[in-house]
């Protein structure tokens, strides 16, 4: 019997008495493991060997897990510091104990969240106590980390401890497929009869074709069912692909793209929008201010005066303004933009590209940043589709028609509108679309006609209709995503991203 060289080597190295692993066969034959695997499957197809597979699981420490294995868990360090501070006798200031423990940054939050859970003591109203009977040495998580770090094969991690360590990101369970090869009776028979190495050719070359040798050589069989290593190449993120699609649609509708800074003065982000400085959305709870630098130096002097006048006195005969404090130093404060309407104010004022004559249409698809609570529809940063149209005698019907035309390009034709209040638009309304999976109404944007109090200081003398739409919410309506964290952020579903095709 004639077989390719690799198959002969594997056949001779395998045993009929016990299963031999692929790694052991690779070492015995001096062949790569993938070559041994391919040869084993080909021999199995001939009935000469059997290949058994099993999935082995191993527990491996993450980088953070290795750090805690070497330097104790944060909650253990906090407990030891609490004992040193006398918290086993009376409650002690939590700040004092944290300072004594040497914990910093995220480690403090981790320690506090696990301290009471493990029965080390109680934290209440800024005070901490320590249970003198607690036993950090018996901490199952700490013991497991130490054993895994030492490479102790006898380390037994119970299911609850393993789940906790996985949830904390300290270990990960790695699955590997192990294969073992055993000679069959037919394999033994063929070996006893004598197996020869066949001279086979693996691929057609120009030399074989020009010489005519291809007619006489024996080509190796190609097993199309053999396992192959999976290679996941790079790909443009679905969010970026959809953003580019949105840009194409808006350009096709006659819009020009705006660009501008992610960090900007509160003046451009809020003051120019006739947003009062004591508005709750302008507190540190909702905005991300900069520590260095804290303020912008250059603002257009005349425009600052006009905007301040609008805030204090209002615009027109019936305007009253807000009668609330207005501070230029606050207007110069730098922050991450909470909406891309800061770009609109820059362009409408003429500061960005000069005076713009109506009719005009502009848009942007860029990131904004808000200190929101994370949930399936909110993130700390997301993409906003900003847009505005400058023209004479615009109405809400023009605005609604624009939305209907835009969303129809993405197969969404059931847009609903709800009246709303904004400091900078009147009339105003929110947009809603029906989620294709849950059937629920999902808010997808906000819009309206810019108020005179906003436009007059900017030097705009005609109507401007504008909107801010959420790109991630558009994806939810297009593809049925129920949680935007599946496609955006550190917890995104990579398989979902690889397998979802962008609609055009």
UniProtKB/TrEMBL annotation:
Entries under InterPro entries matching the protein: aa-tRNA-synth_II (IPR006195), aa-tRNA-synth_II/BPL/LPL (IPR045864), Phe-tRNA-synth_IIc_asu (IPR004529), Phe_tRNA_ligase_alpha_bac/arc (IPR022917), Phenylalanyl-tRNA_Synthase (IPR002319), WH-like_DNA-bd_sf (IPR036388), WH_DNA-bd_sf (IPR036390)
E.C. number: 6.1.1.20
Protein location: Cytoplasm
One Pfam family cited in the UniProt record for this chain: tRNA-synt_2d
PROSITE patterns for this protein: AA_TRNA_LIGASE_II (PS50862)
Enzyme class, spelled out: ligase
Protein name: Phenylalanine--tRNA ligase alpha subunit
Alphabetized PANTHER family for the sequence: PHENYLALANINE--TRNA LIGASE ALPHA SUBUNIT (PTHR11538:SF40), PHENYLALANYL-TRNA SYNTHETASE (PTHR11538)
Any one cellular-component term (Gene Ontology): cytoplasm
Gene3D superfamilies (UniProt xref): Bira Bifunctional Protein, Domain 2, Winged helix-like DNA-binding domain superfamily/Winged helix DNA-binding domain
Cofactor note: Binds 2 magnesium ions per tetramer.
One Gene Ontology biological process: phenylalanyl-tRNA aminoacylation
Key words of the record: Aminoacyl-tRNA synthetase, ATP-binding, Cytoplasm, Ligase, Magnesium, Metal-binding, Nucleotide-binding, Protein biosynthesis
CDD domains associated with the record: PheRS_alpha_core
Species annotation: Natronobacterium lacisalsi AJ5
Chain sites annotated for binding L-phenylalanine: 341, 384-386, 424, 450
Aminoacyl-tRNA synthetase recorded as keyword: yes
């Amino acid at each position: 019997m004639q077989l390719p060289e690799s198959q002969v080597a594997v056949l001779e190295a395998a045993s009929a008495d016990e299963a031999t692993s692929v790694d052991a066969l690779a070492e015995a034959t001096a062949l790569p493991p993938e070559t041994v695997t391919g040869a084993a499957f080909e021999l199995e197809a001939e009935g000469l060997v059997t290949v058994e597979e099993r999935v082995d699981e191993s527990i491996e420490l993450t980088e953070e897990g290795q750090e805690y294995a070497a330097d104790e868990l944060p909650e253990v360090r906090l407990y030891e510091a609490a004992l040193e501070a006398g918290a086993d006798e009376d409650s002690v200031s939590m700040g004092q104990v944290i300072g004594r423990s040497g914990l910093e940054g995220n480690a403090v939050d981790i320690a506090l969240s696990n301290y009471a859970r493990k029965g080390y003591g109680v934290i209440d109203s800024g005070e901490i106590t320590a249970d003198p009977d607690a036993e950090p040495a018996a901490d199952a998580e700490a013991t497991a980390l130490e054993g895994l770090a030492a490479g102790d094969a006898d380390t037994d991690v119970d299911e609850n401890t393993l789940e906790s360590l996985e949830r904390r990101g300290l270990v990960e369970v790695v699955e590997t497929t192990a294969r073992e090869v055993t000679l069959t009776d037919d394999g033994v028979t063929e070996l006893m009869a004598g197996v020869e190495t066949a001279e086979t050719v693996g691929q057609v070359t120009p030399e074989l074709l020009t010489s005519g040798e291809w007619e006489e050589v024996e080509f190796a069989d190609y097993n199309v069912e053999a396992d192959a290593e999976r290679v996941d190449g790079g790909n443009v993120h679905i969010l970026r692909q959809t953003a580019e699609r949105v840009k194409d649609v808006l350009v096709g509708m006659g819009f020009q793209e705006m660009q501008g800074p992610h960090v900007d003065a509160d003046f451009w982000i809020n003051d120019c929008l006739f947003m009062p400085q004591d508005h709750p959305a302008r507190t540190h709870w909702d905005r991300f201010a900069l520590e260095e630098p804290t303020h912008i130096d250059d603002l257009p002097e005349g425009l600052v005066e006009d905007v301040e006048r609008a805030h204090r006195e209002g615009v027109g005969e019936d305007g009253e303004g807000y009668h609330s404090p207005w501070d230029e130093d606050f207007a110069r404060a730098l922050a991450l933009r909470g909406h891309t309407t800061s770009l609109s104010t820059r362009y409408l004022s003429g500061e960005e590209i000069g005076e713009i004559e109506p009719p005009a249409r502009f848009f942007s698809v860029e990131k904004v940043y808000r200190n929101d609570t994370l949930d399936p529809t909110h993130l700390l940063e997301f993409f906003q589709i900003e847009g505005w149209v400058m023209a004479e005698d615009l109405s809400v019907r023009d605005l609604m028609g624009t939305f209907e035309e835009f969303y129809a390009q993405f197969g969404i034709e059931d847009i609903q509108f709800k009246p709303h209040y904004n400091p900078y638009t009147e009339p105003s309304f929110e947009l809603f679309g029906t989620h294709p999976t849950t059937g629920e109404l999902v808010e997808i944007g906000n819009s309206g006609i810019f108020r005179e109090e906003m436009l007059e200081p900017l030097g705009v003398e005609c109507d401007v209709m504008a909107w801010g739409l959420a790109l991630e919410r558009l994806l939810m309506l297009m593809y049925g995503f129920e949680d935007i964290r599946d496609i955006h952020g550190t917890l995104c579903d990579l398989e979902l991203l690889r397998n979802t095709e962008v609609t055009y």
